[in-house]
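User: Could you check the structure of this?
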Amino acid sequence: MREDISNITIKVCYFLLAIAGLILLLSPSYTTAQEGKDGLILRYVYGGYNNIVEPGESKTLYIEIANSDNSPTTDIQFTSEAPNAWIVEFSPQSINTLNAGSYQTIEIIVTAPQNVPKGDYSITVIAHSNIGTRVMNLYMWVEKESGLWIWIGVMLGVLVIAAFIIIFKRFSRD
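Assistant: Sure, the predicted C-alpha cells are below.
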C-alpha cells in the first residue's frame, strides 16, 4: 500500500515538473515574428500583445530588429500598412547600418482615429533593407467607452435608490 502511494506521489511530482517546464518554455521574454534566410529578424519586445487603445488616443509599442547574418545590413526603412485614418510613427524611422549579430529597439506610436468603432484591428509593420524585406503584424483592440451608457447607468442607479427611499418612508412605521 505504501509503495502505491509513493509511486503516485512520484508520478504527480513528475507531472507538475512537466507542466512547469511547459509553462516556462511557452512564455519567453520575446517572440520572433518572422525570421528569414538572410538573417533579418523582427520581433515583439515583451508585453507587445496587450495592445488596447481608446479612440483618439495613442499606444506606444516596441519591437526589435536583429541581424543574425554574418554581414552588416544597411539602409533599413520602416513603413506600415494600417486601417484608414490610423497614424503609425516609427522612432527611428530608418537605420543606416545594423551590424552582424546586433539588434536595435524600435519605438512605434500607434494612434487610433477619434471615431473608430470598437473592435480589433491589424497593422502591418514592414522593414525594407538592402538584403530583403521583413513583415510583422501588430494587433490593436479598440475599447470604446460611450459616455451615454455611463450616464444611463448612473441615472438608473439614482432612480433605484430614490425608489427605495420613497418606499421606505411611505411604509415605515412612525
